[in-house]
Amino acid sequence: MTRVLCIAAHPDDEVLGVGGTLLRHKALGHEVAVYIAQKCGRPDAVSDDEMLEAKGRMGLDYYLGWADGSLMVDEVVELLRPDVVYTHSGADLHEDHRALLDRVLVACRPQSGVRGLYAFETPSATDWSGRDFTPRLFVDITETVEGKEHAMEAYASELRELPHPRNIDSLYHRGLYWGQRAGVEYAEAFEVIRECW
């Protein structure tokens, strides 16, 4: 069985960046886990109830490490032994995202057993940085984009009005844009850090 792990800095990053792909993996019978490294320190940050609701809506196998800092990235990789890992892009504006990427790169060295290591975009972190996000992998999420929307709606405190990119309309527009690049209706895009078959 393929084991998939998403390592995200904050709750909602996992849905925004890779939600449709995680649901696609789940539909294919893969074991899917999400590790949330920390809770954002803002006073209006995501609540525990929102994260638990999103977790329930995603229906994934595990959510780990939520906001307590008790697990380190290398421990999570050692514990779950994933075949595929998704994490933040180095093009992100948010320093927590870039710092987490560095920890993921160390934990997912070639001898870790990780065959595929991919970086996702995070709306308002990747697209506002002035750095290039250069995806080379596109995943067709046409069948799972509604599930991604349903999970994102659980994060009500993080949703914003247009033209801010963190809203349901933008979620669909972004999916359509990447879908056009890939020749499907809706897609999510990923930078390929390492892939070995």
* Number of individual domains: 1
Order of strands in the sheet with most strands: 3-2-1-4-5-7-6
Number of helical stretches of at least 4 residues: 6
Q: How widely separated are the two ends?
A: 15 Å
Would you tell me the structural class of the helices and strands? alpha/beta
Helix/strand order: EHEHEHEHEEHHE
Outline type: globular
Beta-strand percentage range: 15-25%
Reported for the largest beta sheet, the result is: 7 strands, mixed
CATH homologous superfamily (4th level) name: LmbE-like
Number of beta-strand segments: 7
Helical content class = 25-40%
Low-confidence stretches: none
The CATH topology is: Rossmann fold
The value of Rg in angstroms is 15 Å
| CATH architecture annotation name | 3-Layer(aba) Sandwich
Broad CATH class: Alpha Beta
Overall pLDDT metric: 90
Write a structural description.
There is one protein chain. With 197 residues, this protein is of the alpha/beta class. It has a single domain, classed as Rossmann fold (3-Layer(aba) Sandwich), CATH 3.40.50. Helices cover 36% and strands 19% of the residues. It is built from six helices and seven strands, in the order βαβαβαβαββααβ. It has a seven-stranded mixed beta sheet, with helices on both faces. Helix 4 links the parallel strand 4 and strand 5. The protein is globular, with a radius of gyration of 15 Å. The two termini are 15 Å apart. The mean pLDDT is 90.
